User: Fold this.
Amino acid sequence: MLYGKEHVQRYQETDGAEGHDWNNTTVLLLTTKGRNSGRAYTTPLIYQKHGDDHVIVASKGGDPDDPEWYKNLVANPEVEIQVKGDKFTSRARTATDTERPELWRLMTRTWPDYDEYTKKTNREIPVVVLERIP
Assistant:
């Protein structure tokens, strides 16, 4: 099974032919700029489409701390996305309180473990909307 750096490498080499479909869901590659280092970091993340946007969840498996990629995009919301062979720039933002319930349901339908992760942490797990920049 693909995971981590190997997942990113195979996804990039095959334009997502290997790595986009994963464990009965779909994965995109998110590239953020390190908030301290300025380096590019690429992370494979489960996503779903919502209208023209892509939606991801900053769960870190229910860890008490937000994932590094989320901290990076909060500091610098312009990110690069790859969905299969399509590579583009997006603006990332945390879902509003109004949007969050619908988007959370969308994401838990594709990855039910997100509901389990909420039981492991006191933080509200962020839902992130990726809006493509034309």
Observations:
- Residues 4-14 form the longest helix (11 residues).
- The longest strand covers residues 25-33.
